[in-house]
From TrEMBL:
A Pfam family this chain is assigned to: UDPG_MGDP_dh_N
Annotated protein name in UniProt: UDP-glucose 6-dehydrogenase
Taxonomic lineage from the root: Bacteria, Pseudomonadati, Bacteroidota, Cytophagia, Cytophagales
Keyword check for Oxidoreductase: yes
Source organism per UniProt: Reichenbachiella ulvae
Recorded superkingdom: Bacteria
Catalytic activity: UDP-alpha-D-glucose + 2 NAD(+) + H2O = UDP-alpha-D-glucuronate + 2 NADH + 3 H(+)
TM region positions: none
Length: 435
């Protein structure tokens, strides 16, 4: 099948590459000329484990190509995916201008029956808006399908190739058949393709992300309680996570969720609810609690040091989670800003995200070649992202590098007893401080 993917970011590039891998011919289209130039030169502009092998193979075998020209890119395509940004607008609702602009542009250039797929996360009713925008100028028949994407950055290829489920929102039998044919190679093990109406599909994605954000926030609230009553959140986590109704995942306490999806999707769902005069109170609490959770360790730092003006902090981890270079809404950046605002200095190391942070913060902080260089001469160490490389560091070496043996751990990487034995002052989330 010939497919076009409009928008070649984290979702679009993975979608395009994976569908090429299952034998389709895919053209990826993006307005960012620099990005397309890189892709044409076989350079992947993002860090996503495992993507390179599939990317190289499918380019070599002539199934994957790139262009900035929409008309050229969609020529002959039976399916056109829209994997475009839907950032929060000023009022918190999802900004649909990217999607509707492309929908306007598509109308006059469709040459034959085409399935247009909303892959972006979009509010209820967007399929109708996209349909109206295309229909205004289309000369041929087309269907708009909602097919939300559930991949996680860092394991995106695996998630895409073996999805837990595929959600297809359409009222057209013809489009449904084409979509099912496309996804068949990815669900051979029997994972379901769930077909529903467009609105339910659109809401499914927001419900999933908002539920997960709520689960994280709930556990952070339990962690805050643990600190006040002298309980250990890791024990509570194990105790509740073994209940099959609750499940083990998304129960780790920390300094809050970030990333390009949860914050904006929770906000957009709350806003959508408001538009239909529904006060989705839980979501408002989740958003405000997550904000305060992000800087919890700053309070601990100030309690420990008093004035931190002139002090140096080593920050391990910048990405919003491990295995990605994505720094959108990363809690690390909020913490760095708080430290700089208080007159402190920051030295940092992240295995993949430093280039992106350099683009934002320039030389206001020091970027180091590894985690030990970042610790050298610092007054304390802060852990912001749970990269595996930070899990078992050489603690004896860290002791020789830090001015004071104190660690503020926003991801609960270390055992508190071990830290006590090693002689560290150790603050984490939802567990007793080791002093
Ligand atoms: P992204 O910002 O990484 O990529 C979007 C791309 O679209 C960019 O390369 C941009 O240049 C391009 N673009 C903008 N306007 C264009 C136009 N007119 N024509 C062609 N290209 C254009 O975004 P993303 O992270 O891939 O997210 C895309 C959508 O998928 C969002 O709605 C997001 O919520 C959703 N989503 C993201 C993830 C994730 O983990 N990143 C997961 C599931 C769903």
């Amino acid at each position: 099948m010939k497919i076009a993917v409009v928008g070649t970011g984290y979702v679009g590039l993975v979608t395009g590459t994976c569908f090429a891998e299952t034998g389709n011919h895919v053209t990826c289209i993006d307005i960012d000329e620099k990005k397309v130039e890189k892709l044409k030169n076989k350079v992947i502009p993002i860090y996503e484990p495992g993507l390179d092998v599939l990317f190289d193979r499918n380019i070599k075998q002539g199934r994957l190509d790139f262009t900035t020209n929409l008309k050229e890119g969609i020529k002959g395509a039976k399916i056109i995916f829209l994997a475009l940004p839907t950032p929060p607008g000023e009022d918190g609702s999802a900004d649909l201008s990217y999607i509707l602009k492309v929908a306007d542009d598509l109308g006059p250039i469709l040459e034959d029956y085409t399935v247009i797929v909303d892959k972006s996360t979009v509010p209820v009713g967007t399929a109708d808006k996209v349909t109206a925008a295309i229909a205004a100028n289309a000369k041929v028949e087309f269907s708009v399908v909602s097919n939300p994407e559930f991949l996680r950055e860092g394991v995106a290829v695996e998630d895409f190739m073996k999805p837990d489920r595929v959600v297809i929102g359409t009222s057209s039998k013809k489009a449904q058949k084409i979509m099912e044919e496309l996804y068949a190679p990815l669900v051979r093990q029997g994972n379901p393709v769930i077909t529903m109406d467009e609105k339910s599909a659109e809401l499914t994605k927001y419900a999933a992300n908002s539920f997960l954000a709520t689960k994280i926030t709930f556990m952070n609230e339990i962690a805050n309680m643990c600190e006040l009553v002298g309980a250990d959140v890791d024990m509570v986590r194990k105790g509740v996570g073994t209940d099959s109704r609750i499940g083990k995942r998304f129960l780790f306490a920390g300094i809050g969720y970030g990333g390009s999806c949860f914050p904006k999707d929770v906000q957009a769902l709350a806003k959508s609810a408001k538009e239909v005069n529904y006060d989705f109170e839980i979501l408002n609490a989740v958003m405000s609690k997550n904000e305060t959770q992000k800087t919890k360790l700053i309070d601990r730092i100030k309690d420990h040091f008093g004035d931190i003006k002139g002090k140096t902090f080593s920050v391990w981890g910048l990405a919003f989670k491990p295995y990605t270079d994505d720094i959108r809404e990363a809690p690390a950046l909020v913490n760095i800003k708080a430290l700089l605002d208080a007159g402190a200095k920051v030295k940092t190391y992240d295995p993949e995200a430093m280039e992106n942070v350099k683009g934002q913060l320039g030389d206001s902080i020091e970027f180091c070649e590894d985690e030990y260089a970042a610790a050298e001469g610092a007054d304390a160490l802060l852990i912001m992202t749970e990269w595996p490389v930070f899990r078992t560091p050489e603690f004896d070496k860290i002791k020789t590098l830090l001015k004071e043996n104190v660690i503020f751990d926003g991801r609960n990487l270390y055992n508190t007893e071990t830290m006590a034995e090693l002689g560290f002052t150790y603050y984490s989330i939802g567990r007793a401080a080791v002093k």
